[in-house]
Amino acid sequence: MDPKGKVVVVTGGAGGIGLETARHFVDAGAKVAIMDIDPAALEMAVADLGGEVLGVACNVSDEASVEAAFDEVVSHYGQLDVAVLNAGILRDGLLIKVDRETGKVRGKMSLSQWQSVIDVNLTGVFLTGREAAIRMVNTGCKGVLVLISSIAKRGNIGQTNYSAAKAGVETLAVVWGKELARAGIRVASVSPGFIATPMVIRDMKPEMLDRFRKMIPVGRLGKPEEIAHTIRFVVENDLICATDIEPSGGLKL
Ligand SMILES: NC(=O)c1ccc[n+]([C@@H]2O[C@H](COP(=O)([O-])OP(=O)(O)OC[C@H]3O[C@@H](n4cnc5c(N)ncnc54)[C@H](O)[C@@H]3O)[C@@H](O)[C@H]2O)c1
User: Fold this and answer.
1) Counting atoms of ligand 1 from 1, which one is nearest the CA of 120?
2) Residues designated catalytic
3) Is the CB of 162 within 6 Å of ligand 1?
4) How far is CA 59 from CA 11, 31, 37, 176, 178, in A?
5) Helices and strands: H and E segment counts in the chain
6) CB 73 within 8 A of CB 132
């Protein structure tokens, strides 16, 4: 699909990979809507992107909020061609923490730590993917869904919640790619490696980040625009469906 003139939604579009993806599609001549939970960041991103970008307040883990947000996009633009399901959070921690001196457990991943990541990173993708697909079908658009997973889907120490959610996201892309093909909708996932965004620089422990940097075969973190480029490739290439692409600089985890 040529994105020129098409309507593209990016969730979590007010920062990091989402903002660069929105910029990429604005530059490609698409009509872009960004959805985000952070109203201040959303306002700044809309001003930054310029043009006719629509900013929509949305919590991807809240069903009513997601339904209203997609209704707003369709009533504004009249159609929906591409949805990039990118919103995500980190709440890292070990399943259990064992005290080195006593040999006893002194901490555990809380249920809220688990649930918050599952709610945003997995349920959020389910809700936004479902509502996007409904509107693509009802407006007669042969659209594309691009789901953002992560190489952490293979299982990363300290990321019980995040790895489980991202493995689920990759699987959703396969199931939906098969189910929605009959409606003319393509679905695929993109699994980035470590990318220099606020999520990584702000939310990851520096020692963990340093360890990963040394493990990346190309010797550096990825750039958000390199992920945006991969997402655009998925949109443009009509043969990509029910599969995953890993822009990770060779890091497998
Ligand atoms: N940065 C990386 O190294 C990396 C690697 C692999 C995968 N990813 C994935 O890429 C995606 C984007 O990550 P990023 O690094 O740009 O993160 P980021 O923190 O820089 O940006 C995430 C955006 O999502 C928004 N958001 C958070 N919760 C939301 C919610 N409930 N509803 C709506 N919006 C919400 C935030 O406000 C923010 O604008 C995430 O799904 C992340 O898991 C990132």
Assistant:
1) 31
2) 162
3) no
4) 9, 21, 5, 22, 27
5) 9, 9
6) no
What is the reported pLDDT for 211? 87
- Decide: 66 and 43 in contact? Cβ < 8 Å: no
Domain 7-245 has what CATH class? alpha beta
Q: Is the dihedral of CA 150, 155, 157, 161 positive or negative?
A: positive
Question: How close is the Cα of 102 to the center of ligand 1, in Å?
Answer: 38
Give CA separation, 155 vs 33, 86, 122, 140, 161, in Å.
32, 20, 15, 39, 10
pLDDT per residue over 69-99, tens digit each?
999 999 999 999 999 999 999 999 999 999 9
Residue 218 clears pLDDT 90, i.e. is over it: yes
Provide the 8-state DSSP code for 102. T
The DSSP element (H or E) to which 85 belongs, if any, is: strand 82-85
